[in-house]
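Researcher: Next sequence.
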Amino acid sequence: MAHEFIVEALREAGYHVIHASTGDEALARCKLRVADVLVTDVRLPGQLDGWQIADILSM
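Model: Next structure:
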């Protein structure tokens, strides 16, 4: 899948990647550790989509 390629490419480039499968999981992980960059799909499973996550984390 495309997300696996992106995760692996970023890790190989030396970045610490936090991968989440749902919007809810992504938000929970981002609240535990501040991310420098957010790469998300706008259509994620769960209650939150990528746009909502970006909006919440930008506050």
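Model: Residues 2-57 form one domain. The chain has one domain: 2-57.
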